[in-house]
Design a protein that fits this description.
With 175 residues, the protein is an all-alpha fold. The protein has 6 helices and no strands. It starts with a helix and ends in a 17-residue tail after the last helix. The structure holds heme C.
Length: 175
């Protein structure tokens, strides 16, 4: 009789623990709160995000965002090298149909933060050829927050002028 009560007691403790665990799992599965990119240094964002997972929260069809990004191109003096509208100057254009290391959000964001020397050390290689070849300086500590850089990149993408299939770099492989 005693033994029976003990077993029942243990079973209910076990059930309780299982329920708690399930609850924890449900919590872990819930979507994380959205990142406030205005409060996030670009260098921290790339450190805390696995390679390939950075996605621009803005679309290049958001005219206000694109306009702001175009202004940042001047204020952060990207235009000194890449030309006023990003169309090229001393350095390669950002607006043509060539993506030097790849055209996805993740690659572009990391390139601007790290600069091309550091980028190549991580194993990235030039897959697109521009007429001008030179180093892109690291801007990770100059650009105030990740939000500013996302807006710049929305501007860059909005000016893309090549085959739409390559707007985000190499198109997905045919199934
Ligand atoms: C000192 C000149 C210079 C400045 C300033 C500069 N860049 Fe660059 N940028 C380059 C060069 C050179 C390359 C090509 C790098 C290579 O070939 O490895 C490049 C490449 C790039 C690319 C890749 C382009 C492509 O077609 O794939 C992007 C995007 C870019 N820069 C964005 C920026 C942004 C945004 C800023 C300002 C925050 C900026 N750059 C400031 C020189 C510069």
């Amino acid at each position: 009789m005693r033994r029976g009560i003990l077993v029942v007691g243990m079973v209910s403790i076990f059930a309780g623990a299982t329920a708690l665990c399930t609850l924890r799992l449900v919590w872990a599965d819930a979507a994380p709160p959205p990142i406030d990119y205005t409060k996030m240094a670009p260098a921290d964002l790339i450190k805390n995000t696995p390679k390939g997972k950075l996605v621009n929260p803005y679309k290049d069809t958001q005219a206000d965002v694109v306009a702001e990004g175009g202004k940042f191109l001047q204020t952060y003096s990207c235009s000194g090298c890449h030309g006023g509208g990003g169309g090229g100057g001393m350095c390669p254009p950002l607006t043509n149909d060539i993506w030097i290391y790849g055209g996805d959000d993740d690659t572009l964001f990391r390139l601007v933060v790290l600069g091309s020397d550091e980028f190549q050390k991580l194993g990235y290689t030039r897959i697109g050829r521009e007429n001008v070849v030179g180093p892109m300086p690291p801007f990770g500590t100059i650009i105030k927050n990740a939000d500013d850089l996302w807006k710049i990149l929305a501007f860059v993408r909005s000016k893309y002028s090549g085959d739409p299939a390559y707007k985000f770099g190499a198109p997905p492989e045919a199934p």
